[in-house]
């Protein structure tokens, strides 16, 4: 069984590491952590994730802009994107997800919630897709 | 003569010749025998002493009159240089105030009588006079002249008064005929006195006016009472009403019988006008004062409004600064919280930590993290309150849900929760997510003020519109029962209460009454802010010893038509 590839982009290394380790510990995930949004697009093209976890407020390019660029990219256009944001409540996150077509999770997020979201929205890992 | 001899000793003092000033007599008489006789008669003792000067001719007499003072003149009308009445006229002409006693012979008594008519005090016929009569005549002449003079002066005095007074003065007899009018009145009528006397009001005034005057007169004459009034007159062609102050008094004879009336009147138009003007000025002044007071009150209100607005602006600026800071803080703190959150979740999954005290600690940590997150939500809510979406909601259910959200607090002590929910509570217009923050904050404040547990009462009730509030239905009749304008939620704890000196600051950010930094000092600020966003109000007060009552007033949803 192929692991699902998860790209997590957040300027906070502690957070990306925690998410990464947690997911890997749980099993069934291959996690790529990226703390610089400027690098994220090329990393994504190369990694070809099944789902992207994206911080909203980041120095340099913010999550919103990064998401736009991914949508514009042929290879990433259909990759599910989950925004992780500290500025809204869980209720608002659900609302905004409905309105924008993106997914939102409010920080701090419970691990179970995170996993459920990934399982629900990540593309099915396809054997051919991975190298 | 005989009267002068025996005098009663004490009652009437005998005029002693030295103490009583002598009466000086100028005797103008050409007949030496007559002159001697008269001097002799006057020298006889009587009640008065006489000093007699003698002039044999009119010229001499006039000379003496000019030179000396005399009390009386004894004048013979037939003199070498003057004769008859003319003699009297000349003397009178020179000394009008002098009492003159005329002497005549039997042959020219007529001239003497004429002299008396012309103003002589008396006349004596030579040869039929004795000393007693002479002395008495002299003295009476002096007295009479003095009285006449006094009368004349008095008359002149009154005449001068009557003619110079600015009032119109008139008199009428019982038949309403004029008997007198002063110059002022005559001038007004444009007639001399002779054309006034004997005429009536009908001769001078229009019939209706004349009739009115006579009626007034008759009333005075019949009642004997003074009549006083202010009459309005419309003089033809003059334009403008004239006002006359009229006083009519009865004239009585010696026996007190009314024999006519006297009228005095004067123009008070200007006085009236001044009074009117004064009254108007006073009214105007009062009005101005009222207006001034109103303006001052308005100004005071405006000043208060401005000051309130100013305070609000300062408040808002401060809040905005705090708000920006809070947003930053919330965001920055949430990231490490996220790390902790996931870390805790991870630890909770480890089999090694499912034994001993570890699960308990994990729960505590989880709880702490939850609380920290709640604070951050509150901070954010305070900093940038998102738009409220007001919908009619059942408050009882929302309060119940909020109670559920603080249920973790219940584990710490034993609380008796009393719910006094009005089952017929009308729905309130609220944003359910936000209003729950309000109730959660108030409930957790209540719970935390009672670390040892105790009773808490939660009450919901409608607030009826009080008189003067809301709209009064137009038209009469009984007002229909107005639906409640607002709904109240009251939370009463039995905790430690708020120190009175601190109660005014409880809504300030970062202010807390909880000891040892236990509280976040932020809950009530956010709470108030949210309630205000709803157009509602919140009051927090000590409601009894040691307890706090928080009252949230929210708009009721208007009933569906």
List the defining traits of the structure above:
heterodimer, A: 131 residues, alpha/beta, 5 helices, disordered C terminus, B: 561 residues, five-stranded parallel sheet, five-stranded antiparallel sheet, 14 helices, 19 strands, rod-shaped
Molecular structure report:
The complex is a heterodimer of chains A (131) and B (561). With 131 residues, chain A is of the alpha/beta class. Chain A is built from five helices and five strands. In chain A, strands 2-1-3-4-5 form a five-stranded parallel beta sheet, sandwiched between helices. In chain A, helix 4 (90-100) links the parallel strand 4 and strand 5. The radius of gyration of chain A is 14 Å and the shape is globular. Chain A starts with a strand and ends in a 10-residue tail after the last helix. Chain B has 561 residues and is of the alpha/beta class. Helix content of chain B is 45%, strand content 20%. Residues 1-17, 467-479 and 515-520 of chain B have low confidence and may be disordered. Chain B is rod-shaped. Chain B contains 14 helices and 19 strands. The A-B interface holds A 10, 12, 14-15, 18-19, 21-22, 25, 57, 84, 86-87, 89, 91-92, 107-112, 114 and B 327, 330-331, 334-343, 345-346, 349, 369, 373, 376-377, 380, 386, 433.
């Amino acid at each position: 069984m192929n692991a699902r590839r998860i790209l997590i982009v957040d300027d906070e290394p502690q957070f990306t590491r925690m998410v990464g380790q947690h997911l890997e510990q749980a099993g069934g995930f291959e996690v790529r952590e990226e703390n610089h949004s400027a690098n994220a697009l090329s990393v994504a093209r190369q990694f070809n994730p099944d789902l992207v976890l994206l911080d909203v407020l980041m120095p340099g390019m913010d999550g919103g802009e990064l998401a736009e660029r991914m949508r514009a990219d042929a290879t990433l256009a259909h990759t599910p994107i989950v925004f992780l944001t500290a500025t809204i409540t869980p209720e608002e996150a659900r609302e905004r997800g409905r309105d924008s077509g993106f997914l939102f999770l409010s920080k701090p997020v419970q691990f179970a919630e995170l996993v459920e979201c990934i399982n629900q929205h990540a593309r099915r890992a396809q054997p051919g897709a991975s190298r | 003569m005989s009267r002068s001899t025996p005098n009663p000793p004490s009652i009437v003092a005998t005029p002693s010749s030295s103490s009583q000033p002598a009466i000086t007599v100028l005797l103008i008489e050409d007949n030496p025998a007559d002159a001697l006789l008269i001097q002799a008669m006057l020298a006889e003792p009587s009640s008065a002493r006489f000093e007699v000067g003698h002039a044999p001719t009119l010229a001499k007499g006039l000379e003496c009159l000019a030179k000396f003072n005399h009390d009386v003149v004894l004048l013979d009308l037939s003199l070498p240089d003057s004769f008859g009445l003319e003699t009297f006229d000349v003397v009178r002409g020179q000394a009008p105030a002098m009492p003159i006693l005329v002497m005549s012979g039997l042959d020219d008594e007529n001239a003497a009588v004429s002299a008396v008519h012309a103003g002589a005090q008396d006349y004596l016929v030579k040869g039929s006079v004795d000393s007693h009569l002479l002395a008495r005549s002299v003295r009476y002449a002096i007295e009479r002249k003095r009285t006449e003079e006094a009368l004349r002066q008095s008359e002149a005095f009154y005449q001068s008064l009557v003619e110079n007074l600015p009032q119109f003065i008139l008199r009428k007899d019982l038949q309403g005929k004029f008997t007198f009018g002063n110059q002022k009145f005559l001038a007004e009528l444009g007639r001399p006195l002779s054309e006034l006397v004997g005429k009536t009001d009908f001769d001078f005034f229009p019939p209706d006016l004349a009739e009115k005057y006579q009626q007034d007169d008759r009333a005075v004459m019949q009642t004997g009472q003074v009549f006083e009034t202010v009459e309005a007159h419309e003089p033809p062609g003059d334009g403008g009403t004239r006002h006359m102050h009229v006083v009519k008094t009865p004239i009585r004879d010696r026996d007190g019988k009314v024999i006519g009336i006297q009228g005095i009147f004067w123009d008070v138009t200007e006085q009236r006008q001044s009074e009117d003007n004064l009254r108007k000025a006073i009214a105007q002044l009062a009005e101005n004062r009222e207006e001034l007071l109103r303006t001052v009150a308005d100004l005071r209100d405006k000043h208060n409004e401005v000051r309130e607005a100013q305070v609000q602006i300062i408040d808002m600026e401060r809040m905005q600064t705090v708000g920006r800071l809070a947003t930053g803080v919330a965001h920055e703190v949430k990231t490490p919280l996220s790390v902790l959150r996931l870390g805790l979740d991870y630890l909770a999954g480890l089999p090694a930590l499912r034994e001993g005290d570890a699960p308990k600690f994990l729960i505590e940590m989880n709880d702490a993290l939850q609380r920290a997150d709640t604070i951050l939500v509150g901070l954010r809510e305070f900093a940038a309150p998102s738009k409220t979406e007001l919908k009619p909601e059942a408050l009882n259910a929302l309060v119940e849900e909020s109670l559920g959200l603080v249920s973790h607090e219940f584990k710490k002590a034993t609380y008796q929760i009393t719910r006094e929910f009005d089952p017929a509570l009308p729905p309130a217009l609220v944003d359910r997510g936000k209003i729950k923050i309000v109730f959660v904050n108030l409930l957790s404040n209540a719970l935390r003020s009672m670390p040892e547990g105790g009773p808490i009462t939660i009450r919901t009730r409608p607030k009826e519109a009080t008189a003067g509030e809301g709209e009064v239905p137009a038209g009469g009749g009984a007002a229909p029962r107005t639906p409640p304008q607002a709904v109240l939620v009251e939370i009463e704890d039995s905790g430690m209460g708020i120190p009175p000196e601190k109660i005014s600051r409880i809504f300030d950010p970062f202010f807390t009454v909880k000891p040892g930094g236990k509280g976040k000092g932020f809950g009530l600020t956010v709470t108030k802010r949210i309630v205000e966003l709803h157009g509602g109000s919140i009051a927090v007060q000590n409601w009894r010893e040691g307890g706090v009552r928080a009252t949230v007033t929210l708009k009721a949803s208007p009933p569906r038509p």
